[in-house]
Amino acid sequence: MNFESEEHTALRAAVSALGQRHGRGHDREELWAEAAKLGYLGVNLPEAYGGGGGGMAELSLVLEELGAAGCPLLMMVVSPAICGTVIARFGTDEQKHRWLPGLADGSVTMAFGITEPDAGSNSHRITTTARRADDGGWILTGRKVFISGVDIAEATLIVGRTEDARTGSLKPCLFIVPRDTPGFTRSQIDMELHAHEKQFELVLDDVALPADALVGDEDAGLLQLFAGLNPERIMTAAFAIGMGRYALARAVDYARTRQVWKAPIGAHQAIAHPLAQAHIELELARLMMQKAAALYDAGDDIAAGEAANMAKYAAAEACVEAVDQAVHTLGGNGLTREYGLAALVTAARVARIAPVSREMILNYVSHQSLGLPKSY
């Protein structure tokens, strides 16, 4: 029984072929351009704006297969998945016409800014605030950290908070901030992680925005926010599964041919069993990712939220284990540049801590799924 449709199977094969043509050491711009030309980057966006008319099922498949070929595109998590989805679901007609065609054909990228230095995983402590200007626009003030790809993005979708006129409390809202807006500055964070996409700290110093910078309904900010966070978790799962598959494939190839005694090392259970277990965990994580994507594409945001968190957790754990076992299988070769596994030791851990830590996912599941009380 095949759990994927014929269309998905064909898409997986086509994207895999693209990834194999580029592979490890790829030129990011060339791969991005070719993936865009083939329609893969906007496969989840509406056809009316140049997209493929699919959903998270198709987009996560694309990212997984590129990752399995050793050439994942991190900005797919952010630009079409988070920003494109939010604008497609909640943007005005003008915002959709302005941004979606470029996001769909890859000519435009958009970053996403939610994390703050003093809030960490507690999104309720976000202090970036937006107040109404005299001309009806908005004034944004605040800071963001670990924001990917701001230097190559035409704009950043910023999560801020506005005051509720009825209660006086703050509520989340989303704003599109073009890269060159006065008062919107960035500084690169010096990371040990080697990646094409750099990380930045953002400062919004009384950034003046027009009224139409607000995405969606001011009173439905939380719904709109999670409409972006669920795809983010699904795509992070795809990123991790692809990375884990890449590492596992390198290890399996090595174990088949590396011979120290009479038989290849893959014949020994001490090598074979951990690799088999890593394969099982990756496959299980993929099933949960596919469930999350199916629920999200069906419009069941609540069920998708639970599944997306579970998928992200399972995929991150499976990825870390697969990379660790791959390096262990290759021994000293696992740390050489030739085999391309050493860099994944650091990269794999990113899925455990971003965009939400494994502990916060366990909190979510214990509270939301199991009904246990909170300690905070």
Quick description:
With 376 residues, this protein is α+β, with helices and mostly antiparallel strands.
Can you give a write-up of this model?
With 376 residues, the chain is an alpha+beta fold. Helices cover 50% and strands 15% of the residues. The protein has ten helices and eight strands. The chain has a four-stranded mixed sheet, covered by helices on one side. The chain has a four-stranded antiparallel sheet with strand order 2-3-7-6, with no helix packed on it. Helix 4 runs antiparallel to helix 6 and helix 7 runs antiparallel to helix 8. The longest helix is centred in the middle third of the chain and has 37 residues. The chain starts with 5 loop residues before the first helix and ends in a 7-residue tail after the last helix. The model has no long low-confidence stretch (mean pLDDT 92).
Give the key terms:
15% strand; 8 strands; four-stranded mixed beta sheet; alpha+beta; 376 residues
Termini separation: 45 Å
The rounded Rg comes to 21 Å
Low-confidence stretches: none
Largest sheet: 4 strands, mixed
| Total beta strand runs | 8
Mean pLDDT, all residues: 92
Give the spatial strand order of the biggest sheet.
Answer: 1-4-5-8
H-E order: HHHHHEEEEEEEEHHHHH
Percent range of helical residues: 40-55%
Shape: globular
Q: Which structural category do the helix and sheet elements fall into?
A: alpha+beta
Strand content: 5-15%
Helices, by number, come to: 10
What does the secondary structure layout of this molecule look like, with pairings?
Layout: H1 6-22, H2 28-37, H3 56-68, H4 75-90, H5 93-105, E1 110-113, E2 129-132, E3 138-148, E4 155-163, E5 170-178, E6 184-188, E7 199-209, E8 214-215, H6 221-257, H7 269-297, H8 301-330, H9 342-353, H10 358-369
Parallel strand pairs: 1-4
Antiparallel strand pairs: 2-3, 3-7, 4-5, 5-8, 6-7
Helix pairs in contact: 1-3, 3-6, 4-5, 4-6, 6-7, 6-8, 7-8, 8-9, 8-10
